[in-house]
Amino acid sequence: MISYILLLFLSFLVLCSIALPSSCPNLCECDQNDSSWSVYCRKAIINDTIYAEILNQLPLTLRSLHIQPPSNRIGSNKLRWNDNINRFAQLRVLRLINCQIPAMSRSIRLPSLEVLDLHSNNIEHATMSNFGGMPKLRVLDLSSNHLNILPTGVFTYLRALRSLSLSNNTISDLSTNLLRGLNSLRVLRLDRNPIPIEHINELFTDVSQLDELYLNHCNLSSIYSLALDRIPQLRQLGIGGNNLKMVPTKELRSLPQLSVLDLSHNSIQEITACAFCNTNISKLDLSHNLLGISKDSPFNEDAFRTMPLRHLDLSFNHMNDFDSKWLGWAQEELTSIALSGNFLKNFEESWTYTLKSLIHLELAYNHIKFIPVQLPSRYYHLISLNISGNELTYLPDNINTLLPNVKTFDITANRFHTFSHTDLAFLNNVEQVYVDGNPWDCSCAIQGLQVHMRDRYAMRHILNYDNVRCATPSLVEGHSVLAITDVNDCAVLFGARYGLTQTSEMLILLAGVLLFAALLLMILGCIYFLRERQYKGSYVTREHSRTPLTMANTHSCSSSTNDTHGPLSPPFDPFLVSTETFKATPPLIPPAPPKPGSSYFGI
Ligand SMILES: *[C@@H]1O[C@H](CO)[C@@H](O)[C@H](O)[C@H]1NC(C)=O
Ligand SMILES: *[C@@H]1O[C@H](CO)[C@@H](O)[C@H](O)[C@H]1NC(C)=O
Ligand SMILES: *[C@@H]1O[C@H](CO)[C@@H](O)[C@H](O)[C@H]1NC(C)=O
Ligand SMILES: *[C@@H]1O[C@H](CO)[C@@H](O)[C@H](O)[C@H]1NC(C)=O
Ligand SMILES: *[C@@H]1O[C@H](CO)[C@@H](O)[C@H](O)[C@H]1NC(C)=O
Ligand SMILES: *[C@@H]1O[C@H](CO)[C@@H](O)[C@H](O)[C@H]1NC(C)=O
């Protein structure tokens, strides 16, 4: 016996010692794949002390580390660069976001690092020596820092760099040859910097192989002088937020391969004939322009001629009305359209009726209050529907038949408190459901949603599960829906909203059952008693009137109890007929023989 306990104790110790070195830091979440770890620390505010502890605790096989303050709480991470990160020779992805990091170290040695994301920090300077120890880096994000001047050659060591973001800094001056030697660079983001066009043009000579260029919000009132002909392979261009008044049709002709164009946040009021003719543009963003200002269609009937347009964003254009016929040449082939933020409330037939290939529809921020029980026929084919930011509180009961093919359903930031069983039956068949930003009621009914979310736990970052939070009851207000566990303590039927605990509800239930049983007994007793009285009654009636025996089934309990008929005769119960009863008081007209299913014999 003692040896058995000892054995148990020993095995417990062994288990502990195996588990200890690879335990997940308790402020983080860890995804393990064989021995390589992906660690996310986004649940709590993290400072230098805690960061150092986390680095000490993680296994050397760490593959990915992501540190970012929680989105819902006030407060911010505050970190300085810690060279202990160099322990992780297998680290591929490092994201230290919104951590107030003032500078990068000059002795970083991360030979496997492929992705370095330092956006939203306080980095003011960058030099060549910062990037000497990461030869495999493919993606570098330094956006939303305080970079001002970048010295020549700063990125020279990053021979494998494919994507560079310097967006939202205060770069007003680019040194010549800044990108010299970056022969792998394909993606360049320079949004929200006051860089003069001449400096941008000079960059192009070093990276003529660019695939994607983003110059959104760069205070360009025209792109006339932008030397796009130096980057002829460009496939994606972002020139949103630049106060453009017209589509730069002429300039786009030097980009024969362009397939994605962002013209959002400009001041475009109309799309003229052949605005994009002979381009390869299949995805066009015209959101946040002024297309709804004119009374009629803002699109010339030849606006989308000779271009392979598939995806069109017309959100936030002050359009109180929309007719899909306006899209002219694009109608047949368009597969996705966004009409968000346009005061389009009532799911009109005219929004979609000529779009024969439509499978993605976005109707966010349109003050939609409910989904009607009938939708235009095109909705039957939708694969994704985005109705986030509206005022929905419920889904129709037949949602399953309205949207049978939907795989992505976004109802972020509506007014849902809870889902019914039919809602959940529908949602559980949808691959990606975005439910964050709703005021969830975390009493019992939330369990269905929790089960739904746990099934999709692997996609929790995509589906923003961090922001799926309780609004009521007040005890758990602001808590993550996934983290709520005391739901188990809530009542079974009535919900905790009436302040009932499980025990008191059980008592109420028990009392209810007892009461019901008592009632049932009373009713049975009454029926039995009534039957006896009825048969006695029929005997008496028959004796006097000689009418054939009929069973008075329709007598109610109260009406038959006050009959005051003559002498009591022995009870007659057709189910309890005994020969003795017949002998004792033979009825004048013998009771009709039982007719077992007369219809069987009648034919
Ligand atoms: C696990 O690692 C293998 C290779 O090491 C990779 O192919 C696979 O995609 C990883 N799975 C997940 C879920 O990260
Ligand atoms: C970091 O936070 C922990 C707990 O919040 C605190 O005890 C510690 O003093 C903090 N360290 C620094 C350097 O601020
Ligand atoms: C740009 O950076 C500043 C801080 O540097 C930040 O407050 C702001 O939100 C950023 N803007 C965007 C659009 O990211
Ligand atoms: C934007 O450009 C105009 C001239 O086109 C200039 O007057 C203005 O100062 C610039 N604004 C900023 C914020 O750089
Ligand atoms: C046009 O764009 C598509 C992708 O949208 C691409 O596959 C195709 O190669 C492009 N054609 C030309 C001529 O660039
Ligand atoms: C839904 O639309 C909103 C508003 O345009 C957008 O921010 C959001 O990313 C969309 N959701 C998905 C899943 O694409």
TrEMBL record:
What InterPro entries would the database entry show?
Answer: Cys-rich_flank_reg_C, Leu-rich_rpt, Leu-rich_rpt_typical-subtyp, LRR_dom_sf, SLRP
- One annotated Gene Ontology cellular component of this protein: dendrite membrane
Keywords, ordered alphabetically:
Leucine-rich repeat, Membrane, Repeat, Signal, Transmembrane, Transmembrane helix
Citing just one GO molecular function, the answer is:
protease binding
Q: Which residues form the signal peptide?
A: 1-19
Parts of the chain that traverse the membrane = 506-530
Q: Which residues form the LRRCT domain?
A: 438-491
Q: Does the keyword Nucleotide-binding apply?
A: no
Q: Which GO terms describe its biological process?
A: dendrite guidance; dendrite morphogenesis; dendrite self-avoidance; positive regulation of dendrite morphogenesis; regulation of dendrite extension; regulation of dendrite morphogenesis
Q: What is the top-level taxon of the source organism?
A: Eukaryota
**Can you say what this protein is called?**
LRRCT domain-containing protein
Question: What organism is the protein native to?
Answer: Caenorhabditis elegans
What lineage does UniProt assign to this protein's organism? Eukaryota, Metazoa, Ecdysozoa, Nematoda, Chromadorea
